[in-house]
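*** Protein under study ***
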Amino acid sequence: MMKFKVILLSFIFFVSLSCENWLDVNEDPNSLTEVDYKLVLPSGITSMVYVMGGKYQILGALWSQHWTQSPGSSQYSGIDSYDINSSSFDDRQFGELYSGALKALEYVKQESEKEEEWNYYLIANVMQAYIFQVLVDLYNEIPFSEALDAGKTSPRYEKGQDIYDSLIARLDNALSKDFEKEDLKGPEESDVLFNGNIDRWIEFANTLKLKIYLRQSEARPEVARAGIEKLYEDEVKFVSGDVGFAKFMNESGRRNPLYETEVVFLGNNPNLILSYTLYSYLDKNIDYDRLNYMFNTPENGGEHKALEQGNYNDPDIASGTTGATYSKPLMRYNAPVYLMSYSEACFLQAEAMIRYNVEPYTKAREKYDEAKYRAYVRVLYPNYSLEKISEIADNKNYSFPSEGSSLESFIKAIIMQKWVALAGIQSLETFFEQNRTHYPEISNIPADDESYEPGKYTISVNNVTSNRFPKRLIFPESEYTSNINTPERKPVWEKVWWDTKP
């Protein structure tokens, strides 16, 4: 498997706190026992932030049809055409999450448990659970219980279903600790997400459990129901605000990772443009305010222009046309990397309420409306007043279905709004949700057909998968060469374990 390396200083340049000497750059990265685990914690979190906010965000945005590859360039054409191989996502993503983020968090977990410092123990467990779920959802089987054992050079791969069960057990164990214990250390300086507010970490853990259960709604409906009913019976608290890393600065190496690669490195000319799939849906529903603040207009002015998904080599595109003639996603150097937006958390609760009747219809509708409103606030504030945003968010085209409507109509409304709300910030999550729920729906005709229904997925024009949509990633080549337990190569269109809806 991946080499035993703990990048204690990895991505620490993203963080700007009062404590400058977090880690000694001369420390031997293999001498973990000489390092204070309180200083290792931010390294583990920021390592994960770089991966989630960088290429994984691009992957999600392309496969969720929020963005597409711009003409005149080819940087992401492999992703956009589903041409994925064992080199597409390598140690800069898969390996970094294991050797950087997960390994550092494992050290924090082990050392804090020895000292019964439950605040740190909870944070490390929650962050590991978050990362492991993303990896399972991308790869189906992954190294898990043996993955962080330095003595295991070829850790076994475990089934996604078993890992999901273990993640719930780990979260329950961490949540059971005594957070009122006398003299617990406060993680204020080390906690780069909540500044030491453990109540918010407990909320995040509960909401992560909710998401893990809902992901199994089709594959294991009874497990999902029982788990969610228990959460509501226990009256747990879910996240009360955005969960994201927002400590970026306009300095080299300290900017939002997407801004750093797409704006700074590419001379303010991102190779990503507005997908016609998303544009058509916003246009149909007169959602122009969000469109204007999510994407800029082409350099030659005028209205927004979008490209059919994966159509970057269309011979009919005028000679010399480049991405500059299309609308591009607006990116900011200080934009947070969201792990779970408040909108996502509200949509999760709305679905749980309506799917399992754990709360009345009125509360489900309230959560749905709150999720929509917060999504508009994130995009439009402070350019618009909150009063104005409230008026815009009351878009009748996006109304919650009336009481007594079919379950499927509720799920469609929730997931479609989640697809828009998370565009550009948590696109990978909407990719997973489409695989689970099949919303947005898939069109049987291309987007340039006059009978195309706005907002439906279309197969990438340049797809290399015989018109099959992607469902997963392929393990890095380093896994095939170093871990004898790596599963055989699977095609990118093969479903992961929870993707079972007919």
